[in-house]
Amino acid sequence: MISVAFSCSSRDAALGFAPHVAQIFAVLQTLPISHVTYGGGHTGLMGCVRAEAEKCGIPVQGYNLTRWHTHADDMVLPTLTLRQAAILDQDVAIFLPGGIGTLYELTQVLCEADTKEQSRAIVLYDPDHYFDPFLQWYETIVTRGIGNPLQCHVVHDPVQLQIFMARCIK
Asked: Do 148 and 142 contact (CB within 8 A), yes or no?
């Protein structure tokens, strides 16, 4: 069994990506997933993550701060640092479109992977090439010799995700 963390937008402006969340969970429900974590609440893509997990019968836990607490089942934590750690302390971290909070979480797990502080699989689910500017920036720092190669997997469709997740389970 593996655990999966999601990092994504809580804003309704990102709901155009909701069909992709359903595709991800169509893959996850075929795998031995122990549980899913996410940033809590019921809005934006975060709300889609919770709804899809519940629909698929996958246990789900939201983590939130008091000022953002909107869902009765969320675990409320006192600081952003504790919230991020609780969300991301899983076997696999899947990143979907989001804002500065998602970027913060992504750079945090990439830094942990780069320094060997954590060993989790990192996935950018990117069918619409949302992460291309970030990936281009990161390639620039690697090319200039001031960064190590990226320690994550970019997948563009459910088939690629299924193949990658199958490798995580072995």
From this structure: yes
pLDDT digits (tens, 9 = 90+) for 1-17: 999 999 999 888 889 99
Total domains present in the chain: 1
Q: How far apart are CA 83 and CA 62, in angstroms?
A: 9
Tell me the pLDDT tens digit for each residue of 53-109.
999 999 999 888 876 666 678 888 888 888 888 888 899 999 999 999 899 999 999
- Write out the two tokens for 91: 């076997």
**pTM for this entry:** 0.93
Nearest to 39 by CA among 95, 83, 94: 83
Contact 126, 158 (CB under 8 A): no
CATH number at residue 15: 3.40.50.450
* Domain extent for 68: 2-169
Contact 105, 95 (CB under 8 A): yes
Among 89, 93, 91, 36, which residue's Cα sits nearest to residue 62? 36
Q: What is the CA radius of gyration of the chain?
A: 15
**What would the two tokens of residue 51 be?**
């709804």
Contact assessment for residue 119 and residue 81, using Cβ atoms and an 8 Å cutoff? no
